[in-house]
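Hi P.,

Sorry for the delay on this. The queue was packed all week, but I finally got your sequence through. Input first:
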Amino acid sequence: MLSNNLKFSLSLITLVISGCVLFRPAPSKLYERAVKNEPYDVIIVPGVPYNGKEWSMTMKGRVIWACYLIKNGIAKNVIFSGGAVYSPFIEAKIMALYAEELGVKKNQIFIETNAQHSTENIYNSYCLAKKCGFTKIAVATDQFQSALLMGFTKRHFELPITHIPFVVDILSTIDDVTPLINADSAKVENFKSIVETQSKWQRLRGTQGKNIVFEKEEKLFNR
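Then the structure:
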C-alpha cells in the first residue's frame, strides 16, 4: 500500500482543490472515459523539481500513475517533460530514471528537456508526439495541474488531447515503492535557477503560455 504520508497528501490535495475545480469532471470520471478509448499512443507527464536526494510526493504520484497507465495497457508510451528549472536536475530525465526502475521499458519512454513551464510541457511534448507519429495523446498528471491545463489543451491543438489525472483510490492500491536512481546523468553543470534568469512577470507569462511561439501544425513534423 502507499505510505500513510503519501495517501494523506494525495487525499489532502484532492480535498483542497476540489472547490477550485468543481466545474471540471472528477478524475474518476475522466479515467472512466479514457479507459473506454484506450489505448493512447502516448501520455504526457509534466515535470517536477528534484532536490537531488529523493522524489517529492508530487513527482512520485505522477510517475507511479504514468507507470500504472502503461502497465495496464491504457497508454503505449510516455513523454516526460521538463528541463532543469528550479534545481540543477533535468526533470524529464529524473522521472524517466524512476519509471525505468519501476519497470517501464526504455523504448516506451521519451523525454523533452526544454520546457520551463507547464504550458511548455504540453506544447513541446505535443510537437515531439507528432514528430514521432503519435496521434492519440493524453496528459497524465495530478488533478490540480490537469484542471489548470484543460483550457490550454482545448484551444491550441489540432489533435484532441485527453486528460487522465491520477485517481487517488487507484494509487492507494499500488504497492509503495522506493526505487533508487543515480541522478548524476540528469545533473546540469553551471546551473542557474529560473528565479535568476526570469523575473516574476516573465515567469507568470510563461505559466500562461505567452512565451510559446505556436507553429502551424503541418510544420511540427519537421521540427
